[in-house]
Design a protein that fits this description.
The protein has helices at 41-49, 121-125, 128-140, 157-168, 180-188, 201-209, 226-232, 251-256, 267-271, 275-290, 308-316; strands at residues 2-6, 15-19, 29-39, 66-74, 86-90, 104-108, 112-114, 148-152, 172-177, 192-195, 214-219, 233-241, 259-262, 298-304, 323-327. By secondary structure, the chain is of the alpha/beta class. The chain has two domains: 2-127 and 266-327, Medium-chain alcohol dehydrogenases, catalytic domain (Quinone Oxidoreductase, Chain A, domain 1); 131-262, Rossmann fold (3-Layer(aba) Sandwich). The strands form three sheets. Strands 3, 4, 5, 6, 7, 14 and 15 form a seven-stranded mixed beta sheet that branches. Strands 10-9-8-11-12-13 form a six-stranded parallel beta sheet, with helices on both faces. Helix 3 packs across helix 4 and helix 3 (128-140) crosses helix 10 (275-290). It is globular and about 60 Å long. The chain starts with a strand and ends with a strand. Keywords: Oxidoreductase. It comes from Pseudoalteromonas rubra. GO terms for molecular function: oxidoreductase activity; zinc ion binding. This is Quinone oxidoreductase. InterPro entries: ADH-like_N, ER, GroES-like_sf, NAD(P)-bd_dom_sf, Quin_OxRdtase/zeta-crystal_CS, YIM1/Zinc_Alcohol_DH_Fams.
Length: 328
């Protein structure tokens, strides 16, 4: 089969279109003919950082975590899927798990689910990693009807899903963005847009919550922005963060009695820990999508398998609006 293979890591690392051995199906797994794969920030981090990340696969490597495609073979013990099923998931491209930038992919059946019937393969491939991350973070933060929820970075990959899910769960949703296009997308998704470049945290907390703060803050920006999340949260509020690698004074969190939920959705893949949880979340996302409450936003530019490097560059440029998708 054809695959985009990475033979070295680094800033200048390039993918090479290569003929590789087609995987053989194994117990507990299915073989999927890949139709599309989306690019996530962690994919670009693996390509450029390599061994500096403990989750990078050994070279030569086939990257690509997210995918949508069709089951072509079913391994022993798999009862939930049959040949011909259209599925999606986040199931490879790190550690010892082969990735989706190939014509076929071996996937653990616990990490995949039935594709939403009202999404194209391209749209479905855009959803797994960001969808699981947003869903897990909101659930752990105790999302509920009537709450006021702030999503930092609501036009981004994880953020635009978190906005829609929070609205689906009955919350009043607000979201930060930094430009007209971002703010317009946030508004279109059903949230009140906040321009973080022109509005201070204290100002929008006063404007939208009368100074009380937000019940849940979903921070898809992370890093130093977590201090803004603590400031924006209500007393005894919840902060969910997808990027918690930061040195930070927790005094504000202490005096507000905040709960911090760090979401690292790769744990089931890396440690073979509760992988069935991801299937359950994907099944829930399928139901929500088919009900019309969640639509993945795709970048205007599309890429073919041989253009994987260009797709990575597009995401890294910061100019993409929505998920970058590769047609396989």
């Amino acid at each position: 089969m054809k695959a985009m293979v990475l033979n070295q890591y680094g800033e200048e690392a390039a993918f090479t279109l290569t003929e590789v051995v087609k995987p053989q199906v194994t117990a507990g797994h299915v073989l999927v003919q890949v139709a599309a794969s989306s690019v996530n920030t962690v994919d670009t981090m693996i390509r450029t950082m390599g061994d500096a990340l403990p989750l990078s696969p050994a070279l030569p490597a086939v990257l690509g975590m997210d995918f949508a495609g069709t089951v072509v073979e079913v391994g022993e013990g798999v009862t939930d899927f049959a040949v011909g099923d259209e599925v999606y998931g986040c199931a490879g491209g790190l550690a010892d798990l082969p990735g989706a930038l190939a014509e076929f992919m071996l996937a653990d059946a616990r990490l995949i689910a039935r594709k939403p019937s009202n999404l194209s393969m391209r749209e479905a491939a855009a959803l797994p990693l960001v969808g699981i991350t947003a869903y897990e973070g909101l659930q752990r933060a105790g999302i509920g009807a009537g709450q006021q929820v702030l999503v930092h970075g609501g036009s981004g990959g994880v953020g635009h899903v978190a906005v829609q899910l929070a609205k689906h769960f009955g919350a009043r949703v607000y979201s930060t963005g930094g430009g007209d296009a971002q703010l317009e997308l946030i508004s279109r998704l059903g949230a009140v847009p906040i321009n973080y470049k022109t509005e201070q945290v204290a100002d929008y907390v006063t404007t939208h919550t009368e100074g009380r703060g937000f019940d849940v803050v979903f921070d898809s920006v992370g890093g130093a922005n977590m201090a803004n999340s603590f400031e924006a949260a209500a007393l005894n509020g919840h902060v969910a963060s997808t990027v918690a690698m930061v040195d930070l004074d927790l005094s504000v969190a202490h005096f507000k009695g905040l709960s911090l939920h760090v979401v690292f959705m790769l744990i089931p893949m890396l440690h073979n820990h509760k992988r069935e949880d991801h299937q359950q979340i994907l099944n829930a996302l399928t139901t929500i999508v088919e009900a019309g409450a969640l639509v993945p936003v795709l970048d205007e530019l599309g890429f073919e398998l041989s253009q994987a490097g260009l797709a990575h560059a597009r995401l890294q440029s910061g100019q993409a609006m929505g998920k970058v998708v590769i047609d396989v």
